[in-house]
Amino acid sequence: KQEVTQIPAALSVPEGENLVLNCSFTDSAIYNLQWFRQDPGKGLTSLLLIQSSQREQTSGRLNASLDKSSGRSTLYIAASQPGDSATYLCAVPTGGGADGLTFGKGTHLIIQP
Amino acid sequence: NAGVMQNPRHLVRRRGQEARLRCSPMKGHSHVYWYRQLPEEGLKFMVYLQKENIIDESGMPKERFSAEFPKEGPSILRIQQVVRGDSAAYFCASSPRALRNTEAFFGQGTRLTVV
Asked: Minimal CA–CA distance to A5: which of A99, A66, A89, A78?
């Protein structure tokens, strides 16, 4: 059964810092990994999708890496801004015949102005 | 292209009533997924549907919960005889293909409160 863990659960940093969010998954036989952002009381916004054949994916100040063999992904946020404050979630296809996503519990990020 | 549309955004039901949650996928998307998010918990998969078919309902409670995605109209998640433990945020996602090949797009969710 696929399990996804995100560390840290919460993070508070001053504006302007670069930061790394971590995601690990137990079953390395994944097709892809997706990072989402969730603002309080809102839905999920897709940030990046990394296919299993890729090592990195970039979008603006965000860079996601994937090490499939070790079951890890990181989300790097450069030059953080207060508007980056949100909960960041990673998810992988559940696999084993199921076609949903398995989510981590997220990292709650606060960027201090 | 409008995103995934869910309504209502907020729903209050008394114990024992029925809750009907609607989800209109993005245009061109025929795959719909429902998830539940309990307070302080992660999102949990409930059910996966393609047009008129339930593909995987392994995450959905066997009693009181049902889902459909008719040929015409939105997908409906129906909860009969709601209990306090059903209070949660329910999210719908859609994709143009199976998730092994593409990304999922989520709606804003329906926040169900059972009083």
From this structure: A89
- Extended strands (E) in chain B: 5-7, 10-13, 19-24, 31-37, 43-50, 53-56, 65-68, 75-79, 88-95, 105-106, 110-114
Q: Cβ separation of B99 and A93 shorter than 8 Å?
A: yes
Question: Which of the residues A25, A47, A101 would you substitute to probe the B interface, choosing the one with the greatest number of B C-beta atoms within 10 Å?
Answer: A101
pLDDT tens for each residue of B57-67: 999 999 999 99
Give the pairing type, strands A86-95 and A98-103: antiparallel
Q: In terms of Cα–Cα distance, which of A50, A86, A78 is closest to A65?
A: A50
A24-73 per-position pLDDT tens digit: 999 988 889 999 999 988 899 999 999 999 999 999 999 999 999 999 99
How many C-alpha atoms does B35 have within 13 Å on its Cβ side? 25
Cross-chain Cβ contact A46/B42 below 8 Å? no
Q: Taking CB atoms and an 8 Å limit, are A31 and B45 in contact across chains?
A: no
- CA–CA separation, A42 and B110 (whole Å): 10
> DSSP letters along A58-107, please?
EETTEEEEEETTTTEEEEEE-S--GGG-EEEEEEEEEETTEEEEEE---E
Distance from CA of A73 to the nearest CA of B (A): 16
Chain A nearest-CA distance from B16, in A, is: 26
Structural contact between residues B19 and B83, judged by C-beta atoms closer than 8 angstroms: no
